[in-house]
Specification:
- This protein is α/β, with parallel strands linked by helices and 391 residues long.
- It has twelve helices and 13 strands.
- The protein folds into two domains: 9-43 and 289-386, Aspartate Aminotransferase, domain 1; 46-285, Aspartate Aminotransferase, domain 2 (3-Layer(aba) Sandwich), CATH 3.40.640.10.
- The chain has a seven-stranded mixed sheet with strand order 2-8-7-6-5-3-4, with helices on both faces.
- The longest helix has 21 residues, at 289-309.
Amino acid sequence: MDLTKHFNKNLDQIEVSMIRQFDQSISDIPGILKLTLGEPDFPTPDHIKEAAKKAIDADKSHYTGMAGLLELRQAASAFVKEKYHLSYQAENEILVTIGATEALSATLIAILEAGDKVLLPAPAYPGYEPIVNLVGAEVVEIDTRGNDFVLTPQMLEKAILAEGSSLKAVILNYPANPTGVTYSRQEIKALADVLKKYDIFVISDEVYAELTYTDEPHVSIAEYLPDQTILISGLSKSHAMTGWRLGFIFAPAAFTAQLIKSHQYLVTAAATSVQYAAIEALTKGKDDALPMKAEYIKRRDYIIEQMEKIGFKIIRPNGAFYIFAKIPLAQGQDSFRFLQKFAKEKAVAFIPGVAFGQYGEGYLRISYAASMTTIKEAMKRLQEFMEQYAD
């Protein structure tokens, strides 16, 4: 008897994340410095932790409704209205999820069927495609390398027309992981002008919205396409709450009525004490990201200055906390091999660009969600490594 033959066949298309494979390959190196994870190095603000403690002490330990605490949904509604000019009714247009990851899973499971196609600007975060594949749908990547990782209306419309009736949705992520690219109001409106002509969902992952470094604040595509957009957000990046696992889905009431079905049977509801902490985060802590953002900008600018000196080409990121750098041609373009060698010789770990798909090969991703002390030492070792192998 071999029951392994009876698993969902769609699992055959899903591999263990290349990020995890690489991490495993270098984790035994003594004293290795890791600039790998998309996880803020800042602690969760104390006032948020206190709100969770108070909830626990008050025995707030029972289920909330499936959609989450109404008070939290009201806070989320007020937050996105103030920050991004979005109007969502707390009662029936917001779902509280276990992180943005569960929000994405619940959304993709709810809308996709076998044979559907989903457009994805690439290189892209590697967490989208496996969920799409699991339900028998297919990701179609749009190569954005030729335009400095920026999706244009022309690229988008060409891809939509090429896929025809099998196209169900487009996934946007901005500020983007891994490139740090984000979009101006003018650029978002131009993309929206294309999308509104077609009967497709727009799934917009804007979890890094509070970490936008341009003078212009983040602009959500939901402002222009409220009737098509399923907006994904969360507190992991904005409030340094990765381990708390708290996210949101914002969508029209008719969408939410369907999305709550997949959400319910995946998780029932988010943890109750965490929801009380989230209320604190979105009200008294609505600007908690500002001091973190100021520090991220300093780190970004330092890394860019140091890496450009030694031959790396970098498209300046205007959001998130990643540098996506082109490996100099003289070093070869096998990002996995290049960074394995660097890790073994200099005890520093970045993420190979190939972990973000075929269009990420030849690049590397650095997370600057690490202390400046760690970053400076990593840059010093990178310079030594590059000088060692210079022609």
